[in-house]
Fold this sequence. Notes:
By secondary structure, the protein is of the alpha+beta class.
Amino acid sequence: GRLHVARGEAPALREADVVLLDVPCSGTGTLARHPDARWNLKPESIEALSAIQSGILEGAARVVRPGGLLVYATCTLEPEENEERVEAFLRDHPEYMVERGEGVPDALIDGDFLRVDPRAGVCDGAFAARFRRRGG
């Protein structure tokens, strides 16, 4: 396979088997390593980032082939950037379903999502959802 790098809202692809989105986010899962970042966080920043994340998900949804995978990942703990983005995406895209990732340790699974809690002190916080496009 080939790797393509493109602007997420308008990828220059027609069809892909797998799309991995590591979207821009507020980074609240990395505050232990970047404590000064908390002074730059504002509610309106999260709102603006949520809109960007939705745009990137929209762009990616158009290029995943039927039967293909779309993975949405953040390094934030904010529901506006995680669960709420997933819920909105699924409402607008019934051709996708959430699928539990294979090979992921049970300790990192929360329902159908990957969730890393930074309070364990092992690594940064993170969230990921795996979508399968129906068909194919």
